[in-house]
Amino acid sequence: MSAEKPQVSPLRVLFVTSPLMLAMVLGVSVAVLIALSWIGGTAEGARAEITFESDCPAQWAERVQARAGAIGLGDPSLAQRGAQVSLTATLPGLEDDQTAIPALLTAPGVFAVYAAETVDSAPEGTPLATNDDIEDVFFQLDATGHPYTQVDLSPVAGQRVEAAAPPALLYVLDGQVVDTFHSELGFKGSKLELHPKLLSTKEEVRRATDWMLMLKFGPAPCEARGVGIRVVE
Q: Where are the domains of the chain?
């Protein structure tokens, strides 16, 4: 479960925590920087062509171009031939980027916030907020140095969620509940926090970054079919 709270600078944490916690936070922060160093940096993997088909190739071409730019793929070249969209680019050089990058580029990215009685409830009814209500998305660190994705809703959407005053909120991405919110004080403001809660900080960094990139540019305009990849160099 995540709770609404003000953003805390990792630097401030270093000054107010014990020496042991300071070392832990510093270590996590360094790990985060290392894990994210390829984003927006120099891609050093294989050069590959990623292809897929859709019923809205022009809209998909724009979405893929935006996601590829945010990831930091090297020298991307985009082409559209009929229903097919093709992106040729240099991959980051991660051990799984020939599977992870195509999946990330073509992910639906459909987001919704549901009211619920408990954090264990299943999503149902009309969502309180969707992708249309998102103003911006950020990668963040909490006070203990763990990564999460911050989703800023519009003020109108934030007021809608706050006014609903449900016992719990469910954050759903591509049909899965990725995080929940519960607080005796209720939801306040317009900022949502999506915490991965995985086994390692490295995995959490990767997941939070993926969520940020999926939500940053809006959901998929339609289904992507037959996603494939081949190394060209």
A: 47-108+219-231, 110-216
